[in-house]
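Pipeline run #58 for the internal structure catalog. This entry was flagged by the ingest filter as a single-chain record with no existing model, so it goes straight to prediction. Upstream metadata was stripped on purpose; only the residue string is passed forward. Reviewer on rotation: M.T. Logging verbosity set to normal.
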Amino acid sequence: MTEVAAFVAWVGAAVVVLADSRRGLAAGLATLAVAAAAIAWSQGEQGGAIVLLAGGVLGSALRFTIGPDGWGLMQPGSTPRLLFTIIAALVALWIALAVTSGPSAGARFAALAVLLLLGGRLLEAAEPAVVLTAMAGVALVLGMVSGDGIVSYSLAALVTAAVSAMPVPATPRPRGT
């Protein structure tokens, strides 16, 4: 189950990387929340899984209402981001399976892949809604990997929802020449 949840986490982060509008960002964050909750559940943290899922779904619902309209998936010029999602997944998979040892390779893959993807999106994004969604996803994953009990899961869920509730300033449009 952890491996499937890890793949779903990568898909959610990839959607956040490839999306530029609120519906795509909300879908990616919701997918990431489901995966983070499933990984926490598989590690025996049922209460933490419920809290992570609630915070992620709330954050996703808030992102669905705030930001540029539309899906914004695979806009022109997003080919480098698509390649980035694939390469980040391959590198994270290699590190999770070959370099580290022990159980829970799926959780390590999910954490590394999502942090790579969303960290790269934070560095590249110019749209405030994208930056806030990537920050919310990072908070979810950091809560998932902390495993320090219900307090860390609750803090991650609270940060996810709070960041998603932040108002997005309108981006200035370039003036014609």
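catalog note: DSSP finds seven helices and no strands in the chain.
catalog note: The radius of gyration is 16 Å.
status: ready for reviewer M.T.
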